Amino acid sequence: MTVMKSTIPDAARQVAGSVLQSTLVDLLGISLIGKQAHWNIVGPRFRSIHLQLDELVTVIREAADTVAERAATLGLPPDGRPEAIASAFALPGPTDGWRSAMGDCPAGSSPTPL
Predict the structure, then answer these.
(1) From CA 79, how far away is CA 108, in angstroms rounded?
(2) How far apart are CA 88 and CA 5, in angstroms?
(3) CA-CA distance, 57 to 33, in Å (whole number)?
(4) What region holds the Ferritin/DPS domain (predicted)?
């Protein structure tokens, strides 16, 4: 197995790696929240919000890729496994159910036909 070497002092590398891993977890978690909203949006502005959420998720996933590659460059393996994200993600998530583009669709209710 190839071990990545870094010219950065180990203590600084570990601090940077910890921050990069936390950032990676947050970005991957936020991308999942974005897709959850993308799949569950309903209402008269559905299409525009649906497309905007797709664009947002793409940007967030690209940022996650950049963060993971920077950690790898430091010789620290990034961890984007589902169990790593699930155990470390601390930001609030969405509730289940449909989300109205107008903000008037309570969780768990059926969407109004478009």
Answers:
(1) 33
(2) 27
(3) 9
(4) 20-92
Encode 55-89: b = buried (16+ Cβ within 10 Å), e = exposed: ebbeebbebbeebbebbeebebebeeeeeebeeeb
Q: Which residues of 26-47 are buried (b: 16+ CB within 10 A; e: fewer)?
A: bbbbbbbbbbbbbebbbbeeee
Radius of gyration of the chain (CA): 18
Q: Measuring CA to CA, which residue among 30, 34, 27, 29 is closest to residue 99?
A: 34
- The domain limits of the chain are 12-100
CA 32 to CA 60: how far, in whole Å? 10
Place of tokens 């797709």: 54
**Class of the CATH domain delimited by 12-100:** mainly alpha
**Segment holding 56, helix H or strand E:** helix 46-73
